[in-house]
Amino acid sequence: MNLKKENKQNSGQRVTQFPKGKKNSLTDVPGVKAGHLTVHKDFQNKLGKKVSVRTGFTAVLPYAMEKEMRLFAGCFILNGKGEMTGYEVMEDFCYLNSPIVVTNSFNVGKVYDAILSYGFALKRDEIWPPLVVGVDDSYLNDMNQFLFKEEEILEAFRKASDGQLAEGSVGIGLGLSAFGWKGGIGSASRLLAHGGKKFSLGILVVSNHGHRSSDEGGGSLTIVVGVDIPVLPQQIQRIVRSLVSNLSLGAKPNSRDTVSCILFSTANPMNMENQGPQVFDFQMIDDSFLDQIIGAGLEAIEEAILNSLLKATPIRGKLGRIVRAISKDEFEKFVKEGRWNDEK
Q1: What's the 3-state SS for the chain?
Q2: What's the pTM value of the predicted model, to 2 decimals?
Q3: Within 10 A of 176 (CB to CB), how many other CB atoms are there?
Q4: Which domain holds residue 144?
Q5: Domain total in the chain
């Protein structure tokens, strides 16, 4: 069975090797939900100073969170200068049992606490440690002037869906920029086949990298990968390291940017009801298939980054700063100068 085909994408009319999923989104992976909380408002603080809030968060729910369950997961971080809670535990034990949330650095603690409250309300015994990634949106957002309320965080979790994921200037993407233009949320997916079985790979990116000025704050590229392929922890590590190391020139962050890549697999779910069984049986894809997973992942990451630019809208934020969206001509030049268009 061979699902490879040439498929021109809207993103730069690039010829792709792997077909897209139905929604071309992270939510093409069965069972995965995602959602955003977007906060866009202006007010005066107690000192009479104008405050511009351009922030939010983006959440990925890898499975139905009312279930007492673990999924195999792993992460690779390059130039780690940001915040990520739960990273060390995931590194040690190689599993994930909470939502994955990307928010601004000053709200990491609020979201962490809300995930615990969410688990307690669902009567979960095990939803620790929450996996929360912090990014710097301080160029457009008065980051030190606004914290989320727990109820609005919980409501966003409840509203997360497996439908088409909104992209661009939404969620944590509202206050972000990339390559000098408005960045934010991007998503894409690819379909694969091996051994007579079909699989899905979905990508979500948070593009806040390639900054051309130090005034834009700390740069970062956050990548969340979901698959329904039965990969075990040592294979997950090979995949995430390869994805970060082999980003094409067009997608590549600069030397100052933090790159975080988190991968989870919905295959081999570990049911932990009543503390789980004493012995688990797992499936594992053959290592010969890893190159295809990495190739499909790189393709989807590149498209997701382009989508984060294409879907973004211009934003005016803190101190009246404006980050404009990329124009059609600029986008075509950006694609041409990169290595996105590999067609001969």
Answers
A1: CCCCCCEECCCCCCEECCCCCCCCCHHHCCCCEEEEEEEEEEEECCCCCEEEEEEEEEEEECCCCCCCEEEEEEEEEECCCCEEECHHHHHHHCEECCCEEEEEHHHHHHHHHHHHHHHHHCCCCCCCCCEEEEECCCCCCCHHHCCCCHHHHHHHHHHCECCCCCCECCHHHHHCEECCEECEEEEEEEEEEECCEEEEEEEEEEEECCCCCHHHCCCEEEEEEEECCCCCHHHHHHHHHHHHHCCCCCCCCCCCCEEEEEEEECCCCEECHHHCCCCCCCCCCCHHHHHHHHHHHHHHHHHHHHHHHHCCCCEECHHHCEECCCCHHHHHHHHHHCCCCCCC
A2: 0.93
A3: 34
A4: 18-272+280-324
A5: 1
CATH number at residue 45: 3.60.70.12
Q: Please indicate, yes or no, if residue 247 is contained in any of the structural domains.
A: yes
Q: Is 286 inside any structural domain?
A: yes
Report d(CA 56, CA 298) in Å as an integer.
Answer: 27
Local confidence pLDDT in tens for the 344 residues of the chain: 344 443 344 444 456 799 999 999 999 999 999 999 999 999 999 999 999 999 999 999 999 999 999 999 999 999 888 899 999 999 999 999 999 999 999 999 999 999 999 999 999 999 989 999 999 999 999 999 999 999 999 999 999 999 999 999 999 999 999 999 999 999 999 999 999 999 999 999 999 999 877 777 679 999 999 999 999 999 999 999 999 999 986 677 788 899 999 999 999 999 999 888 989 999 999 999 999 999 999 999 999 999 999 999 999 999 999 999 999 999 998 888 774 444 32
